[in-house]
Amino acid sequence: MTVDYIIVGLGLAGIAFAEELISHNKSFVVFEDSSQNSSLVAGGMYNPVVLKRFTPVWNAKEQLDLAIPFYKNLENRFKKTYNYKVDIYRIFKSVEEQNNWFTACDKILLQDYMIPKIVKNKNKYILAPYDSGRLIKTGRIDVNKLATDYRLSLKKENILKEEKFEYDKIDFQTDFVIYKNIKAKKIVFCEGFGLKENPFFNDLPMREAKGELITIHAPDLKVDYLIKSAIFVLPIGDDLYKVGATFNWTDKTKKPTEEAREELEFKLSSVINCNYKIVDHIAGIRPTIKDRRPLIGIHSKYKQLAILNGLGTRGVMIAPLMAKKLFQHIENGEEIEKEINIHRFD
Ligand SMILES: Cc1cc2nc3c(=O)[nH]c(=O)nc-3n(C[C@H](O)[C@H](O)[C@H](O)COP(=O)(O)OP(=O)(O)OC[C@H]3O[C@@H](n4cnc5c(N)ncnc54)[C@H](O)[C@@H]3O)c2cc1C
Q1: pTM, 2 dp
Q2: pLDDT tens for residues 321-341?
Q3: Among 39, 201, 254, 322, which is best to mutate for testing ligand 1, by the most ligand atoms less than 8 A from CB?
């Protein structure tokens, strides 16, 4: 089998890169061994405002301009809905925060999203003595549904290998590689936290962060927007809400823990006061980098190897833009800015 590319990993990074290849008529095969699941468990929110400080997310406009049509295109292809518009209500902790909100609403990059009003809380089950500020044009991508459909479609085309990619089996030739019975010009690694096992790139400074989410059934709550306070409460339909997420920098397993559930329930008790039942609890590892920027580029010695990683806490927004930049770099030699280039750590 001869292909242009081998992709290792089919989370958001792998999907975004596969989409670049499809749009440029390049052939590829994907290896996916289900060792990581960050994309499958993600809340899937996209939002261009840092909700702690009311500042713009790094490069948000450029990312969103590409991401929204990217998901639309996939919705059209698979005839499914993945992008759910969800406003965000940021609960204020103080009068000072209310004032900060109004100041931020005047900023050029934020005024399209932040509404300069205080929204009075009328829901008796929400605890918001200082009321909330409302963000619009935000939403949730059902990444799990998208990734599942994507895997199925590649499987039907016989270009998904559901097995571990074995790094020591790469046979390097001058301008290509041979991996088992596949000849490819390039391999693009999109392994998320799996990067740690990749001998070609595991010197890059990943500071992965485990995250856990619970799903609750809360029939009295009746909310159709995301509530953001100490945690987020995200409606996903049928009176179900995703509640999250935790950050843990020491536990490297994908296993949900009692401690995280307790932490989430404790924080939830400061946000809502209605009855609920936990119906699900999931965990995954976010591929976060030391300086909180993505990682893209070509290996300095093995030119056939490239990487797309470091999507961190915001893979939904960042993945399509990073995939485009990496593709243009590999195929057309376009330069990658230092900020996101793997060689910033050389
Ligand atoms: C609890 C939680 C909540 C989150 N919420 C949000 C959110 O609301 N919005 C947002 O934008 N982001 C969110 N994120 C972050 C988001 O999930 C990540 O940014 C993104 O999914 C990372 O995608 P990825 O493709 O790089 O990694 P992954 O999704 O981990 O994909 C990597 C893939 O590579 C495969 N793989 C690895 N090694 C190998 C190998 N050797 N052979 C074969 N396959 C291999 C793995 O099985 C995996 O499928 C959240 C993350 C967590 C954990």
Answers
A1: 0.97
A2: 999 999 999 999 999 999 999
A3: 39
Percent over 90 (pLDDT), the chain: 98
Q: Which of 254, 269, 316 is nearest to 39 (CA)?
A: 316
Minimal-distance CA residue to ligand 1 atom 23: 12
CA distance 253 to 10: 19
Task: Looking at the CA of residue 318, tell me the nearest atom of ligand 1.
Answer: 11
Q: Which two tokens mark 259?
A: 């401690």
Give the confidence band of 109 by pLDDT, cuts at 50, 70, 90.
Answer: confident
Mean pLDDT, residues 134-159: 97
Report the 10 Å Cβ neighbour count for 216: 22
Domains with residue ranges and CATH for the chain:
2-42+144-205+291-345 (3.50.50.60)
Model confidence at 108: pLDDT above 90 = no
Give the position of tokens 């119906």. Answer: 279
- Residues at CB less than 6 angstroms from ligand 1: 8-14, 31-36, 38-39, 41-45, 164-165, 190-194, 211, 213, 244-245, 284, 286-287, 309, 311-317
Token couple for 102: 């109004």
Section 209-216 average pLDDT: 98
| Burial call 71-86: b when 16+ CB within 10 Å, e when fewer | beebeeeeeeebbbeb
